[in-house]
Amino acid sequence: MTRERLVSTARRALAHRAAGTQDQAAGVVAVPARHYTDPDRWATEMDRVFDRLPLVVAASCELAEPGSYVSGEIHRTPYLVSRGADGVLRAFHNVCSHRGAIVTPPGRGAARRHTCQYHAWSYDDRGRLAGVLDAADFGDIDRACMGLTPLRCAERAGLVWIIPSDEDAIDIDTFLCGYGEMLEHLELADCHPVGRQTIAGPNWKIAYDGYLDLYHLPVLHRDSFGPEISNKALYDAWGPHQRATSPDQGFERLVDTPEADWAVRHLNGGVWTIFPHVSIATMDAAGRMYMVSILSPGPDPSSSTTTQLFLHTRQLDESRLALAREQMGFFERVVRDEDYAMGAGVYRALRSGAKQSVLFGRNEGGGQRFHAFLDQLLETDDGDLSQLFIDAAGESTSLSP
Hints:
- By secondary structure, this protein is an alpha+beta fold.
- The protein has two domains: 275 residues, Naphthalene 1,2-dioxygenase Alpha Subunit, Chain A, domain 1 (Alpha-Beta Complex), CATH 3.90.380; 101 residues, Rieske [2Fe-2S] iron-sulphur domain (Rieske Iron-sulfur Protein).
- Helices cover 29% and strands 27% of the residues.
- It is built from eleven helices and 19 strands.
- The mean pLDDT is 94.
């Protein structure tokens, strides 16, 4: 069924390509400008989106070996995710039980123990308190109660999620609305890490709008890669999770090939977004390389940060790894100096009050769906959260012409 969905999108792309058309929503939608700038709405988004939904923090291939770990902070949750010697993936709040310091600095690596840089308390790969500096002088404590605080986590389709909320409001499979099966076609679990980098960005929704927006590509990116890319878009949805691609994005190679022989690698291109904060962009570079962009809101409505993970389907030799890292530098500059510089200006302009709303055209159905679902989510209480995603999965569709 999942391959058939890819084939269906390819058929649609070929039909649009032949006709010079694209997917069209029913009409133009106006989104209030204050939805980007209002501090009260932003606080509600933090509570009802980023504090209770699963959030991607890593790729499974970064945590393939026992002892491997990734640490960082997403939204307001410092996290440490590690693969234990028993092969089990575990996540913890990266906060020392002694005085609340960050235990492991942000990054990825391998360690049997994680030692706090403040007073050298250490924890094993299961989060248990393993060592206390000058324990006899410190005094009696119940070590069994002083481990790292666990975080719920999940691993699907080669990606790793943490779930910040202690409440069991939604499980990962309900949240994914069947999208995890589609993401399996990217084969991220079999990829090899190329590198990570972090970029400061604008309001989180302005950044996310860009993930779903092909309309801007030949204009904003006219001096980088834009002239090579069509701005016509096709959108497919699995609940709030969406794929954006173009009729001209490599589908022409399928024209003279029987459908039964269509290779998955020719069907799974484009940009795959995971609500509320991830974009997976596909690119061909001595094989297939992925840029996984993990967006985290900043401390107020004006800002965000994005961690870009670069993964490759092949184990690259030194020369090709150097070329892949040149691509990393290129996309760091494009996103920072083009997308996010523009986004910061958009936020400042909207904050001025000059416009009461922004528009999403019929050719921007992906953005329309994102904002509509977000509005629904903000009105949904914890007890109804799973049902919201179940209902959204039942409505999963593509935008027809």
